[in-house]
Write a structure and sequence with these properties.
single chain, 9-stranded mixed beta sheet, globular, 217 residues, 5-stranded antiparallel beta sheet
């Protein structure tokens, strides 16, 4: 699995997902917390394969051959909780501070709720979110907690928390504006600590973090 994850991350030189049209002037430079999940069952099967998506790419191929899309599986929800939100941030109104791609078709609360995208790279399926905070509105975060409801992945309607730990030694991109790509160094899930975090720092314009998580189901 580690070898497969390495192949995946060496291939993740993808364009930024956050091509937004909101006015971010005065908020300072963006800090990007780009994170991808590879969810596996106890036998090593990838649980994201076959999850429902919209805005599929390529469009004119069967679902199993799609390499990108917005996760739309019924009942799926993502909340991202900050460890140090300060006095300007409100998790009930993400769009004030964090920003996301243009509204995906068919998803609820498009302007206020973060969501997952599906990627398939090197034959590996994962779900990802590119979370962005602005320097003048929020401090760099030590901890982000991803509260995930996804019956397709977890087999229930419960909230499953994945706690991620971050540092500022991520790569600075000075080519297109000034952005900081934050680096995740540890993940906690259901009492387990995962230190094997994969990073793709080779891309010129886009950097990402990824973790493989085994679910007992």
């Amino acid at each position: 699995m580690k070898r497969a994850s390495t192949i995946l991350l060496m291939s993740l030189g993808l364009a930024s997902l956050c091509s937004c049209c909101i006015d971010t002037s005065g908020l300072g430079y963006p800090m990007r917390y780009d994170f991808s999940f590879i969810f596996l069952d106890a036998d090593g099967n990838n649980l994201a394969e076959g999850i429902d998506i919209v805005d599929q790419n390529p469009r004119n191929v069967p679902r199993e051959d799609a390499t990108f899309g917005v996760v739309s599986d019924k009942g799926t929800r993502l909340d991202i909780i900050l460890s140090n939100p300060g006095d300007k941030y409100d998790n009930n109104n993400y769009r004030e501070i964090g920003f996301f791609p243009d509204t995906p078709y068919g998803l609820p609360e498009p302007e206020t709720q973060p969501y997952f995208v599906y990627k398939k790279v090197g034959g590996i399926s994962l779900i990802a979110n590119d979370f962005v905070l602005f320097a003048n509105a929020c401090e760099p975060q030590e901890i982000l907690t991803y509260q995930i409801v996804c019956p397709y992945i977890f087999g229930d309607d419960d909230v499953h928390a994945v706690t991620t730990y971050w540092k500022e030694q991520g790569k600075e991109d000075g080519m297109v504006n000034k952005e900081y790509f934050m680096e995740c160094y540890k993940v906690e899930f259901e009492g387990k600590v995962i230190n094997d975090i994969n990073h793709d720092w080779e891309s010129l314009l886009y950097e990402s973090n990824s973790v493989a998580i085994t679910i007992d189901r």
